[in-house]
Structure formats: C-alpha cells, structure tokens
Amino acid sequence: MREALRIADSFDLDLVEISPNADPPVCKVIDYSKFLYQQKKKQKEIKAKAVKVVVKEIRFGPHTDEHDFQFKLRHAEKFLKEGAKVKSYVFFKGRSILFKEQGEILLLKFATALEEIGKVEQLPKLEGKRMIMVISPKK
Q: In 3D, which of 136, 85, 133 has the Cα closest to residue 106?
C-alpha cells in the first residue's frame, strides 16, 4: 500500500481504491479531478440525449358543440404529430357535474377520432371537477 502511494506521489496523481474487499485491495493511479470531470461530462451528455416529454392540454366543456370539437381535434392531431402527449379533459363547473356521461362520451369520441395517430394511455377518469384522458403518439 505504501509503495502504491509512493508511486502515485511520484507521478503527481491520486491513488483510488477500486475494490476494497478484494485480497489484496485493488487500487488505481489516476488524476481524480480529471476523472470527476469526465463523469460529469458523461452525465450531461446522457441528460441531453434523453427524450423530453411534452404534454399539451385540451379543455372541453360537457356541452362542447361539433365545430369546437373539430377545431380542438385538429390541434390535438398537430400536437401528436409533433410527438407531444395530449391531456384532454372535460371541465365541469357548477351543476354541469350532472352531465358526467356526456363528458365521458365526448372524450371517447375524441379518442376514436385520434386512434390513427395516437393511443389512449389513460382512459377517462373523474378527478374532482375534471374528467381526464391522456393520449400518447404512436411510434
């Protein structure tokens, strides 16, 4: 061990213990600050290559008419083609919560219209005053 430390000092490098449980312990003579720098660089590269998921939201009311539906459908198609997920939801305000079935029918109609370019990731689910459905793009 002392000989290894002496060798590391003579080269102005660090002695790093790789496997302390081995018999004898495995060590390596390296420039530790350079090693840390390379590790950070690799992590940054991996992070840059990671796919960033974008989620776009589309809001409906329980009584959304056909023209508005088609307009929002075209937007959703554009978002899915760009590779973003679409979180569509029906917002119930006041007493409109009575029309839960209409909201679910609207979301399912939306999903069937988008089945060519997207797949349903989460079926319509009521959370508070919102009925939410998530659609992700097909690869």
A: 133
Q: Report the half-sphere exposure of 82 (CA within 13 A, side-chain side).
A: 14
Using DSSP's 3-state secondary structure scheme, residue 79 falls into helix
The pTM for the full model equals 0.61
Which tens digit of pLDDT belongs to each residue from 51-63?
788 899 999 988 8
Gyration radius (Cα) of the chain, Å: 28
Map out the domains of the chain with their CATH numbers. Answer: 2-47 (3.10.20.80), 55-137 (3.30.110.10)
Q: In sequence order, what are the beta bridge partners of 56?
A: 86
- What pLDDT is stored for residue 67 in this prediction? 94
Reading phi first (left if > 0) and then psi (alpha if -120 to 50, else beta), residue 12 is in left
Q: What percent of the chain has pLDDT over 70?
A: 100
d(CA 57, CA 48): 25
Q: Are 126 and 119 in contact (CB under 8 A)?
A: no
pLDDT digits (tens, 9 = 90+) for 21-58: 888 889 899 998 998 999 999 999 998 888 788 899 99
Cis peptide before 24 (omega within 30 of 0): yes
